């Protein structure tokens, strides 16, 4: 006898805000009537922290301190023990999304060392000799829009051999002048990062210009912390020997789930940076780094 | 003829033809010819049919070749013939059926293309052109690495990744393994096949719900477009790969469309509000996915491919996306790759939102700024590496730029076009751009500014882009639109000044061919002649013309399009020398045929112009001389028809002698084409009859000599024909014509010749490729011949009825088919002739020719000769009847023959004579003996006899009728 259990949310994009009601239906499909010992639905929100392997040795002392941080946890009974008729059964439910106490519901974020995730879980208990069924479904929480208004402030930059740091032999560098600007470094997460880059001069032809989106995750507490920067995505905006003096658009859409408004708590931090990477045809790699502040409006 | 004891006595019935004629037509009702023709479509009434029939119907059979002049049958059915009309409706019905069954998407697409307007030349027409033009023999490679876009799939590494994401990622990993393929050493065809395979696997992946795989395929394909090795193939590669992108765009759009089609399909003019959340979310997902594609080019192409899907998300989506994508292309370093990316974007833009002109313009302006990159180091290095010349490289741009400009120029206001021109001037008249402007802008626009353009072409820097190409493009516009009258000559002079300096014959020819049209359109003989002279001068050295036959042919076609007056055409000094450049036989004949076709179509008046005649004879002779043993029958037939068409247009008016000498000349020139000879004989016979008409039947000594010359012409021409029936018919016809012209001895000779040819008639002949018995044809001919013999007077030196006897002897000696009654049938039909000959006044006679009636004046000896002959014939017939008793089949024949002999006796025999009357009764009985007679016919015969018997001079028939019994009643 096969039974399928599924959770369907009302909203197609599964996005909810604090204070809203997560609504949907639990669907059960079985050919014959089904005996059960109750169906329960639980909602969990949790922050998972993890230490990178390189940090583990150093911070062994507080290794245990990176425990998951629960944000929300509640459950309701959808149906009491009884019988479900054969065919398709839909049981609607509503779940208020309200945090316990003064805890903040952080925005959903899938990272490497920090993960913030919200799930709905449905459990169907069955009598002896039959396995309990369970099904979980992630939903997405967007934090409340920030009150303060952001005024975009353009950031100009200009890269020449002289502006570079970390250069081994400055004399061997080819001459170049790359100018540009980002329309803002405080970005609205739902809107793309924009700006312009312009190659004014370059002795060696350009091979590629890329935008690298980097997440900087920090876990730890006052005693010590681990800070790791990893790439989220890399977008090429120019390929080959681009024409000089022509502004090339900078445009990057912030990927969903993998980005969230910049987050700073006592136990962990999630920050983002953007690197403008210019690769020359002789494989010189020039990077200009910009810290970003993401927010939701 | 063997003499035999006559068992019957023949007496012909006396006839009064006048009286009989009057009895037959008491009211003299004229017969009306109805309009109805069973093969004609109902509504078509066109006077053209008359002309077509005149041209097409000749004595030879009509042609099946398409190049032949109008076929009388098809010209009768003017318009479309009903069969192909059915076929057409059927296919269109089938098409509409399949489209209604097939995907909705296609139908919608068609609708949208229509929205663009029919005057916008769609991409599909360019497609094939590009594929055919940009080819390579070099080896190509496809480099597909399915998993290299690491940015696309964000790094896993967390246990918290949801299950769905994880399986998705695993799926990606699976694909990555071993999916890095590099295909080397592909020929162009292989390459196209591979791409098509990818297209197929895209569709398969899509239909099996592997959307990620589908996306990967598309990304990999568009990545191929950044590879510019084997650069001369790049435009074709672009075409092949954008096909895949189109497929993808359609799939995505249709899928999202169907997600919204519940409960009822979206209207075509849907708005964002009509789209449900799920569809929006799916659509949004696609865009997020595409936004994270690592590499620039695939990201650009794939987003452009699904540009249309923006309609599901927001009203202004497309409007916002187009400029962004346009700007994004600036990041493409390779100018060629960028140009084609722009072309694609413009194409999609035009399809989805033709009203958004700004980004089109932005594209072209951005493109202009990248022009200086072409002369940059990177490009030059690449060209050097691939050993590609700069002009060839620049040509690679033209499809893209042409397309973009076409989009820009489509229904664009005049000022914009003028601005483009100004820009071009600002860019130091960049040749490449100028060329595209002239190609893409409306010909009328270009034509009115032709002088400006010429100035700009002059100012162009010579480097890279050859000027003759520019003039070629200008010429193309001028061929369809007219520049101001006053400027035309200057334009031609300026252009030709440059063209004539082009050294490479192929380049020269390509350009000259285009300008010939302009010249023909606006100028007269003199200028065209000059142009032709120049072409000859360029193409003759080193036999350069051998490489340029198609262009040379097209020059001829264009001239023929504008010059229909052949006297003008042939008075161009250089026209015939130009024709002499076609030295390859097949091409030469093709050209001659095309000239002939135009001649036949447009030469409406008969001509005697020596210039035309000489030239046409020359052309026809060329066609004729191409015939050899290997020429196909169809080809021969079509050539013959063309030549015949010419011969029919030649007329020297009253100068009959010249016409005859023309025919003599033509005969010697076209001796290998039988239908032409047949036509010549007809022409000469007609000539003789026209002479007779002019002289009103009374020939003078001179005209008599002339018509005898005509007869002589025919007499010596006919034997050279191989078809025996043509020969027979022409002998008879020429004999009749000779007789009509009072050339008795000539007529005699023709008829004698016909009789002497008779034994040669084979028992079977091939009719339209099938072997058929010749018997029926022969019988027809003999009956016709017999009818003529009535008026042919006996030759004074030969015996009485010399020709009749000769014919009958031939008939007797001819080896007829076994079991055939043909011989007897001839005998039976000879009887009416003999009966007619024994009348005092003949049924018909020829003006100024004394027939036997006058020669013999009813001499009893003559009459008894006739009677004797009849008796012999009847004896023979009766003998034959006796042999037909063997079986059912022969009984049937016996009955039929007996009945027809009975009929002849009744009509022509004098039944007052008892013996004859008895014979006829016996024949009646014989024919009814075995019940093979049709009772209906018998009854009607009896009725008719009864009717006749009422007349006083036929009263004796009532006796006979008493004794004729109907079988059924006995």
Give the secondary structure arrangement, pairings included.
The complex is a heterodimer of chains A (297) and B (970).
Chain A lengths: L2 E7 L5 E3 L3 E10 L3 E3 L2 E11 L3 H4 L12 E11 L2 E3 L2 E10 L12 E2 L3 E11 L8 E10 L12 E5 L16 E7 L3 E3 L4 E10 L3 E16 L2 E16 L8 E5 L10 E2 L3 E13 L4 E11 L2
Parallel strand pairs in A: 2-11, 14-21
Antiparallel strand pairs in A: 1-3, 3-8, 4-7, 5-6, 5-10, 9-10, 10-11, 12-13, 13-15, 15-18, 16-17, 16-20, 19-20, 20-21
Chain B lengths: L16 H8 L23 H9 L15 H5 L5 H20 L2 H13 L6 H11 L6 E6 L17 H14 L3 E7 L1 H20 L3 H14 L9 H26 L17 H15 L4 H10 L4 H4 L3 H12 L6 H18 L5 H12 L1 H4 L2 H10 L3 H20 L4 H13 L4 H10 L2 H6 L1 H10 L7 H14 L7 H12 L5 H18 L2 H15 L9 H14 L3 H6 L3 H6 L4 H18 L7 H16 L7 H17 L6 H14 L4 H21 L6 H17 L6 H17 L3 H14 L6 E4 L2 E4 L1 H15 L12 H12 L8 H16 L14 H5 L3 H24 L4 H21 L5 H16 L5 H15 L7 H7 L7
Antiparallel strand pairs in B: 1-2, 3-4
Helix pairs in contact in B: 6-10, 8-9, 8-10, 9-10, 9-12, 10-11, 10-12, 12-15, 14-15, 14-16, 15-16, 15-19, 16-19, 19-21, 21-24, 23-24, 24-26, 25-26, 26-27, 26-28, 28-31, 31-32, 31-33, 32-33, 33-35, 34-35, 34-36, 35-36, 35-37, 36-37, 36-38, 37-38, 37-39, 38-40, 39-41, 41-43, 41-44, 44-45
């Amino acid at each position: 006898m096969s039974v399928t259990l599924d959770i369907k949310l009302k909203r197609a994009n599964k996005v909810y805000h604090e204070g809203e009601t997560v609504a949907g239906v639990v669907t059960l499909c079985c050919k014959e009537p089904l005996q059960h010992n109750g169906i329960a639905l639980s909602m969990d929100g949790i922050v998972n922290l993890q230490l990178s392997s390189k940090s583990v040795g150093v911070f062994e002392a507080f290794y245990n301190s990176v425990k998951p941080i629960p944000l929300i946890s509640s459950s309701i009974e959808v149906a009491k023990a009884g019988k479900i008729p054969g065919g398709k059964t839909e049981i609607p439910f509503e779940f208020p999304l309200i945090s316990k106490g003064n805890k903040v519901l952080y925005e959903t974020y899938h990272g490497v060392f920090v993960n913030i995730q919200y799930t709905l879980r449905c459990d169907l208990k069955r009598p002896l000799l039959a396995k309990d069924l369970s099904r979980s479904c992630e939903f997405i929480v967007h934090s409340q829009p920030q009150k303060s208004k952001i005024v975009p402030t353009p950031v100009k930059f200009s890269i020449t051999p002289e502006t570079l740091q970390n250069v081994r032999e400055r004399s061997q560098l080819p001459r170049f002048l790359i100018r540009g600007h980002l329309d803002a470094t405080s970005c609205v997460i739902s809107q793309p990062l924009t700006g312009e880059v312009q190659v004014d001069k370059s002795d060696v032809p350009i091979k590629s210009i890329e935008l690298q989106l980097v997440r900087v995750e920090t876990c730890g507490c006052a005693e010590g912390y681990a800070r790791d920067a990893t790439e989220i995505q890399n977008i090429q905006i120019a390929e080959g020997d681009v024409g000089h003096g022509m502004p090339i658009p900078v445009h990057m859409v912030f990927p969903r789930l993998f980005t969230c408004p910049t987050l700073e708590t006592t136990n962990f931090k999630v920050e983002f940076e953007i690197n403008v990477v210019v690769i020359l045809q002789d494989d010189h790699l020039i990077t200009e780094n910009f810290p970003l502040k993401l927010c939701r409006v | 003829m063997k003499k035999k004891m006559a068992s019957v006595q023949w007496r012909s019935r006396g006839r009064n033809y006048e009286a009989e004629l009057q009895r037959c037509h008491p009211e003299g009702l004229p017969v009306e010819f109805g309009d109805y023709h069973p093969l004609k479509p109902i509504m078509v009434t066109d006077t053209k049919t008359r002309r077509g029939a005149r041209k097409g119907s000749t004595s030879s059979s009509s042609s099946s070749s398409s190049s032949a002049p109008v076929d009388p049958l098809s010209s009768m059915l003017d318009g479309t013939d009903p069969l192909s009309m059915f076929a057409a409706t059927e296919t269109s019905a089938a098409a509409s059926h399949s489209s209604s069954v097939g995907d909705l998407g296609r139908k919608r697409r068609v609708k949208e293309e229509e929205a663009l307007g029919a005057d916008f030349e769609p991409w599909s027409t360019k497609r094939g052109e590009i594929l055919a033009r940009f080819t390579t023999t070099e080896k190509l490679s496809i480099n597909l690495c399915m998993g290299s876009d690491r940015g696309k799939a964000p790094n896993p590494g967390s246990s918290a990744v949801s299950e769905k994401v994880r399986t998705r990622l695993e799926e990606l990993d699976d694909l990555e393994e071993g999916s890095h393929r590099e295909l080397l050493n592909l020929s162009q065809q292989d390459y196209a096949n591979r791409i098509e395979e990818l297209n197929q696997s895209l569709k398969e992946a899509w239909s099996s719900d592997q959307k990620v795989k589908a996306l990967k395929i598309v990304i990999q394909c568009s990545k191929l477009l950044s590879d510019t090795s084997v650069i001369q193939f790049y435009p074709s590669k672009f075409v092949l790969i954008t096909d895949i992108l189109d497929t993808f765009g359609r799939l995505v759009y249709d899928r999202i469309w169907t997600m919204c089609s519940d409960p009822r399909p979206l209207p075509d003019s849907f708005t964002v509000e009509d789209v449900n959340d799920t569809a929006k979310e799916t659509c949004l997902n696609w865009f997020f996915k595409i936004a994270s594609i690592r590499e620039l080019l695939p990201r650009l192409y794939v987003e452009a491919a699904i540009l249309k899907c923006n309609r599901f998300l927001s009203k202004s989506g497309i409007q916002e996306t187009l400029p962004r994508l346009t700007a994004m292309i600036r990041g493409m370093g390779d100018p060629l790759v960028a140009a084609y990316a722009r072309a694609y974007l413009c194409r999609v833009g035009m399809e989805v939102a033709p009203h958004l002109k700004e980004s089109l313009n932005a594209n072209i302006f951005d493109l202009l700024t990248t022009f200086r990159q072409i002369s940059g180091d990177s490009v030059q290095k690449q060209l050097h590496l691939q050993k590609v010349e700069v002009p060839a490289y620049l040509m690679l741009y033209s499809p893209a730029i042409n397309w973009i400009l076409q989009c820009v120029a489509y229904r664009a206001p005049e000022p914009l076009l003028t601005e483009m021109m100004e820009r071009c001037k600002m860019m130091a008249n960049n040749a490449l751009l100028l060329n595209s402007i002239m190609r893409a802008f409306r010909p009328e626009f270009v034509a009115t500014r032709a002088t400006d353009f010429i100035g700009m072409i002059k100012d162009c820097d010579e480097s890279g882009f050859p000027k003759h190409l520019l003039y070629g493009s200008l010429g193309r516009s001028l061929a369809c639109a007219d520049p101001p009258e006053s400027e035309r000559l200057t334009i031609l002079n300026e252009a030709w000044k440059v063209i004539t300096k082009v050294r490479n014959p192929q380049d020269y020819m390509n350009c000259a061919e285009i300008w010939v049209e302009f010249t023909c359109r606006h100028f007269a003989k003199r200028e065209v002649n000059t142009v032709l002279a120049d072409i000859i001068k360029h193409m003759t050295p080193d036999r350069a013309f051998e490489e340029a036959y198609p262009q040379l042919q097209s020059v001829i076609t264009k001239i023929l399009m504008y010059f229909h007056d052949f006297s003008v055409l042939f008075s161009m000094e250089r026209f015939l020398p130009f024709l002499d450049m076609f030295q390859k036989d097949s091409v030469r004949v093709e050209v001659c045929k095309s000239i002939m076709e135009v001649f036949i179509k447009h030469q409406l008046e008969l001509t005697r112009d020596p210039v035309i005649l000489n030239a046409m004879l020359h052309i026809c002779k060329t066609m004729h001389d191409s015939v050899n043993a290997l020429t196909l029958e169809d080809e021969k037939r079509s050539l013959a028809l063309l030549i015949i068409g010419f011969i029919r247009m030649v007329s020297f008016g009253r100068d009959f002698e010249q016409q005859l000498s023309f025919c003599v000349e033509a005969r010697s020139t076209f001796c290998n084409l039988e239908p032409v000879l047949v036509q010549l004989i007809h022409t000469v016979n007609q000539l003789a009859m026209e002479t007779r008409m002019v002289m009103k039947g009374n020939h003078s000594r001179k005209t008599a000599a002339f018509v005898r010359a005509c007869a002589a012409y025919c007499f010596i021409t006919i034997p050279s024909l191989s078809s025996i029936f043509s020969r027979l018919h022409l002998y008879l016809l020429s004999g009749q014509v000779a007789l009509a012209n009072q050339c008795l001895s000539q007529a005699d000779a023709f008829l004698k010749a016909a009789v002497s040819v008779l034994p040669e008639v084979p028992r079977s002949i091939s009719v339209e490729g099938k072997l058929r018995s010749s018997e029926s044809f022969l019988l027809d001919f003999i009956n016709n011949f017999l009818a003529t013999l009535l008026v042919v007077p006996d030759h004074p030196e030969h015996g009485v009825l010399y020709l009749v006897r000769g014919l009958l002897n031939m008939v007797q000696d001819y080896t007829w088919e076994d079991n055939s009654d043909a011989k007897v049938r001839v005998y039976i039909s000879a009887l009416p002739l003999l009966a007619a000959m024994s009348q005092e006044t003949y049924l018909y006679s020829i003006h100024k020719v004394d027939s036997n009636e006058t020669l013999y004046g009813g001499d009893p000896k003559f009459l008894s000769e006739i009677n004797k002959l009849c008796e012999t014939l009847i004896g023979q017939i009766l003998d034959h009847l006796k042999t037909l008793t063997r079986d059912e089949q022969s009984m049937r024949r016996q009955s039929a023959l007996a009945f027809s002999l009975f009929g002849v006796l009744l009509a022509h025999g004098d039944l007052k004579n008892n013996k004859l009357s008895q014979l006829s009764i016996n024949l009646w009985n014989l024919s009814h003996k075995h019940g093979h007679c049709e009772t209906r016919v018998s009854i009607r015969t009896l009725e008719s006899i009864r009717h006749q018997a009422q007349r006083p001079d036929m009263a004796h028939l009532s006796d006979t009728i008493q004794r004729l019994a109907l079988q059924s009643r006995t």
